[in-house]
Sequence to fold (478 residues):
Amino acid sequence: MPELRKGENTAVGSGRVTAELHTVGDPIDLSALLVAADGRVRSDDDLVFYNQPSAESGSVRHLAADTDGPERVEMDPAALPADVDRVVLVASCDPDDATRTFRDVKEVLIRAVQQDADPVRFCPPALVDGERAVLLMELYRRGETWKLRAIGQGYANGLAGLATDFGIEVEEEREEQAAQEQQELPESREQSVGEPSVGERTDAGGGNSTPPAPPEPVTAPAVPTNLRKPPLGAISLDKGGQVAMSLDKNDRELVVTASLEWDGGSEQRRRQGADLDLYALFVPATKALQGGKTPGTLVKSRHKPQGVPLRPGTPTPATGKSAATGTGTGTETAKKGKGADVVYYKRLGSVKGRPYIRLDGDSRVPGRESLRIVRPAEQGYVLLCAYSAVSNGVGSFRSFGAKIVITDGLGSTVTVPLFENTRTRYWVAIALVDFTSPDGAAIHHIEAYSARMTERRPVLHPDGTIEMNAGPVEFKRR
Fold:
């Protein structure tokens, strides 16, 4: 497998080339620039990324990460017009979060695959000086031949600055320019009386002034390229799947709504009873740990959470001491009794104060129970569970049509369905919402059931792991 070093190149055929982005650590985005021989794009249409996924009739296409593979860009050299000299592949941090840099990305690999040829790989040097974008690799012409070159050049001002250098007008640059012109406008209007305007010159002897210069032709302004990530739309998770919902965690007006919905299933199921209850087990940001096990992992008893505090410097619940170094363990175990962090029909919570989660009420008939989550910066992990108040847990949660629906009210709605049929199970942990994710909120499909005939509630640990059959037992009285 050809492994390029920075500056090296290799010839490729004229067939379609697929560039895959592989990373470890904070997620980053892949995009492509179609560049002319002068080193600049021909228009803003030459940036291919998540908001503009195709150029030149599909000869360059952006594909989001999915079950078929990681985020990738497909390029068809034979279909590119003659005035496109190269296609430059770019990796960049989230443009909506200026604090993100490549220092938090442990590994970056671009892998170019072409049919009937060995893949070409390139790992850029470590980027530790505040870079927020990097030129990874370029597909370029040399006469009748196409080649791949490893670049590895970083940019501190992210995709917006990099795109501007290549001649693309991005929306945020345009907004800054408009604001600056607005500030300068009053000063230009304070021109002194009698001072000649632009395009005029007065004669010192009082003669006639020269005619004004003809106005320049007016051209339509370029449409700025919007780099903000689009909403997810409406999607449904596969079994064991996950998706990232992009959120501004500092938005005090943002409300994430999570609902347990069920229709009672068949008429027979509804006659037997269909009272399900939504529970939200939560770990606030001040207690959350990162970096041990993957959030949503099922663990057994005696599990001791390991990881880095999400907020270094806050006292850990086990010791009361400050985790100022940002390393080590947090709390030894989660609260497993009635003092555990949970919102449900007996403890509705609050959106005006901690925990910034509130259940809207208890529905004892098929329908919906909803809770609102605000202040995402104050949240660590939220585990959404359902409890069956039907006698002896008869019937599966799936037979009641149970599912979790999560929405940000801004165009992203994620449905987390159930796939298994079970009997005599009182609890199911359906979905984990991970607010420690750098992308905003990562939603994991869990679908873990309690043991048969066991009413002990699940437990959510500070590292986002889940322990079934470990919490308190609490019967619901009709």
Observations:
- The chain has three helices and 30 strands.
- Helices lie at 158-165, 171-188, 267-272.
